[in-house]
Amino acid sequence: MTTILADSFTSSLAKLANDEQKQAKLTAFDLQANPDQPGLQFHRIDKSKDPNFWSVRVNRDLRIIIHKTGDSVMLAYVDHHDDAYKWAERRRIETHPSTGAIQIVEVRERVEEVALQPAIQPVQADLPFEVAPDKESIPAPPLFAKLTPDHLLSVGVPQDWLADVAEATEDSFFALASHLPQEAGEALLEYAATGILKPAEPVEDPLEHPDTMRRFRVLEGLDELQAALDAPFEKWAVFLHPLQRGVVERDYSGPARVAGSAGTGKTVVALHRVMRILRLDPDARVLLTTFSDPLADALKRKLAVLSGGRDDLEGRVTVASFRRIAEELFGLTAGRKAHIADRETVRGLIERAANDAGVHGFSPRFLISEWENVIDAWRIDSADAYAEVPRMGRKNRLGQKQREALWQVFSRVREALRQKALFTPASLFQAVTSTYASRAEKPFTHIVVDEAQDLGVPELRFLGAIAPDSPDALFFAGDIGQRIFQQPFSWKGLGIDVRGRSFTLKVNYRTSQQIRQMADRLLPKTIRDVDGLEDDRRGAVSVFEGIEPTVVIADDEAAERDAAAAFIRALLEDGIPPDQIAIFVRSPAEVPRARAIAEAAALPYRTVSSGKASDDTALVGIMHLAKGLEFRTVLVVACDEGVLPLAARVADVADEFELDEVIATERQLLYVAATRARDRLFLSSVKPGSEFLEDLI
Ligand SMILES: Nc1ncnc2c1ncn2[C@@H]1O[C@H](COP(=O)(O)OP(=O)(O)OP(=O)(O)O)[C@@H](O)[C@H]1O
């Protein structure tokens, strides 16, 4: 007998109380072990249009809904008695006549009343400032007037729903989409955004259809059912979008990359890719890496969900930040620990070297940036090499004389570091790169990199050197629209060419349609990297609707604080727990403003430097810290003119190219912070606000 798990089962299971979940799981295990055992009580759902729906008794109140056909049993839903029956009475499972995917179709006539109401009623708390008025109430035109029934069928709209879709307007569509199979909702949303309709490719075997596989999973045995049900809150662990699955399962002929705007599931793809490699190749030793230790820890936790605690898999994967893994490999090969100079130490050395060399007229910010992005990143070791370095932006400003003067400073810094036997992160990467570049024996068979947009030159060289020379050794996940730490450079120039093997995800699982649309306004529609690879950000869709973000440009700090505090109090009254709230600012100088807001709202909070992550505190911190995180609500405050973009960075630019680069990364920073929000977003400043806020309003 085959057991199939439907995503509707995992979602409904997740909504039950803990002890109810336990009982429902036990019944599900019994069902899988032997559906004919006498203890199980089945009842056909007589009122359902689909004769194959049955209920199975869990206890006096709870029922599992299964769908029985031939030799297979599908776990479809679980709920309290009446609600479980209602669910099954309104559903039919069928193979779509055009796409061939198996769908759970909501029976049309029973949901008439529901479909006409918006799925979420936007509720704005009373706020002490004005919010944008509702759009004029003129009837909106139908969105899909140009599409024929055949068009609608080609993207998986069930026959029952053709008429509703044809009449849908911008206002009613989201409510309607929640009743449609996901692939139909997404294709129509993409059409609404871009005017392009992408019909699904028909597949012979309905069970093998990518859209079937995104909601139903055929389970191999009890272990698999156990693993899938142990993580019912983590739907991503079991059900992948067809695009995600495609990227995970493909064989590549060289380094590959998954791209996509914030929240499209790139990390999820990276994690599944790791598991796939481990499952298919019993000799694989995988490195899963990213740019910081906290992010690596988060990856480790998620990977444990996927592996279901299987030591034979987890034991063959190392999860660590770029830096940590370089330190470990250095320790292993050199037999000693690398002592690394922190940023402050290097800053001090640069200042002293400039004084000693009598070189003046360059700002400290410029010097450290030139050191980090040029001298140290490219490991420049002579005045000649300095003249040749392939750098972005600074080239025009620095004449030969200036470069000679600067080299006097930087060569002293290099010498001082050498005398103290100190590494910089870049020189550590370089040391390990040199060790492994010529070795045939590599520490890992595969390397999977998350947040790859923030790889710098030394890190990429390092990963290239420790990766074996096999076609699918390197896999990157990243979004160049979220690059906030590194200057752009050519990957191809360093021998890592992902052209032709780069795939873009389009479905945003994290942020509401409203937040995604607003955040997208911060970035260009297409972004091109140094190698000419274009990232087309159009056509992304979010899978749920939320509340319009709030943007406040206040008269003074007190007014901003009052507005933000009122917003937070309304959240707390709505039952949003503090740990689902974050307040971000541009830099440490604005942290006191964020703290004042939290205090005015009586919101318990933690900052990076004070307190530990706990269940009941909000996070207050700088935007750079936001990377990789996710909250129900995000506030980005103190976005004033001069703060965003940061005036000091702008003042230091060498030329137009560098100005563009600074403005782009400052925009990207705001994009990263804003897209951490799932359903509510608040952005504020004191007059005059950041030019970026103007773009958003
Ligand atoms: N197939 C899926 N089903 C359900 N949820 C998913 C799926 N894929 C991703 N998600 C959820 O969407 C959210 C964003 O996923 P993820 O962090 O992988 O996105 P990302 O593209 O790496 O985002 P960012 O670039 O902002 O870091 C997460 O909460 C994740 O669990």
Automatic annotation (TrEMBL):
Keywords: ATP-binding, Helicase, Hydrolase, Isomerase, Nucleotide-binding
GO biological process, one term: recombinational repair
Pfam family, one: UvrD-helicase
Enzyme class label: isomerase
GO MF term set: 3'-5' DNA helicase activity; ATP binding; ATP hydrolysis activity; DNA binding
Catalysed reactions, semicolon-separated: ATP + H2O = ADP + phosphate + H(+); Couples ATP hydrolysis with the unwinding of duplex DNA by translocating in the 3'-5' direction
Domain UvrD-like helicase ATP-binding: 239-540
Nucleotide-binding in keyword set: yes
GO cellular component, one term: cytosol
E.C. number(s) listed in UniProt: 5.6.2.4
Keyword field contains Cell wall biogenesis/degradation: no
Binding site residues for ATP: 260-267
Alphabetical list of SUPFAM superfamilies matching this protein: P-loop containing nucleoside triphosphate hydrolases (SSF52540), RelE-like (SSF143011)
Top-rank taxon: Bacteria
Protein name listed in UniProt: DNA 3'-5' helicase
Organism (species): Mesorhizobium temperatum
